[in-house]
């Protein structure tokens, strides 16, 4: 990052110079942090499409070129060669671990995989039909009640390492327990002999009467999904984690707020919404054109789910990997899902349709991920929860980066342009 040039802003006949910041990949930004104190003006940027909230060294993405890298490593290489736990280490600590570091880090996952026995009672407090994202957000926030002893504004390295691993390991157990509760089966505890993904699959799908056979293909597909979901720089949920965390609330509460942000159908909830959409098309006789036309019709707010992205203006590199992964997994498992055929037809048409072409709308990461989860046997309302498991290292890495800013990150507090009523005097109700 460098500061070489300045931008000139002319306001009310006066010229002001603002520093230009250049990122390590040549990205340019105008540093407006002194704008208001110099000029008394603020900026207006709906949806923050042009506003950087921080300098970050975690993830680089170039939406025009379809590039995504964690700590400099291309996503394609990590998805193929790395493990989820190793990628988590990379995101959080900024470098690939040595084999000794990885062994130690993985060991901590086993040490912290159980949840406090008292927390099991919390699951019973939820209605059976509760959405798993509601349960997960509440349970993650509750961790701050069970582990309140740590100075979260400035945790020691040992404390931070422990909290980070606690979150990533316990989230898996919580998700599995929430699922078991929803289907009325007994909880299955984590096993020390299983790695991250098989352990989760075993807790989800085995029962005292029915052991679950863990297929390598399923483990591989889920690992790839988790790695692809692990970080995506300043998206809605990660920005939420940073914003909430900037008040110096604890990491558990910050991440719980990120889970709530992820839940929405325009963000991580899209994976569930895609399957809803494909099922609706199927029920409607497979008429994809009808749904494409609905999405193009500006008199409705209907959108094709799993299509479009704020940053990617070419094919989402994660969608490319996931599409391939969905084909391979369904083939290997011998699953013949008619929704895959509908998804392929829909994609083909979207890629040729001028409405989507002109607006650079391509399938995103969520377009095919639901089909993979469905083939594995994960119910639809659990898809976004799986996304949350994958995103955990990214959220933790961003929280860590934020609190490590020298002098502490500034509390997030945007400005606004007030457009409401001017001053008027209160009139008592009997005179109105
Ligand atoms: N279907 C139809 N039209 C669309 C779609 C869509 N899925 N997405 C964008 N558009 C149109 C939109 O109507 C607008 O048209 P116009 O220029 O005529 O007004 C134009 O494309 C630009 O859209 P925008 O809403 O300004 O774009 P945005 O950057 O604010 O929104 C988005 C990005 C992802 C919220 C949006 O594309 C969308 O709603 N997609 C469907 C939901 C989805 O798949 N979300 C998952 C995103 S990837 C997972 C993750 O969150 O990380």
Would you mind describing this structure in some detail?
51% of the residues lie in helices and 7% in strands. The protein has 18 helices and six strands. A hairpin with a 2-residue loop joins strand 5 (67-70) and strand 6. Helix 9 runs antiparallel to helix 17 (366-376), helix 10 (236-245) packs antiparallel against helix 11 (251-263) and helix 12 crosses helix 15 (338-352). The N and C termini lie far apart (60 Å). The mean pLDDT is 94. Carboxymethyl coenzyme *A (CMC) is lined by residues 47, 232, 235, 266-268, 270, 295, 303-310, 359, 361, 364-366.
Short overview:
The protein has 432 residues and is mostly helical.
Structural descriptors:
single chain; 432 residues; mainly alpha; Rubrerythrin, domain 2; Citrate Synthase, domain 1; Cytochrome p450-Terp, domain 2; 3 domains; 3-stranded antiparallel β-sheet; 18 helices; 6 strands; globular; binds carboxymethyl coenzyme *A
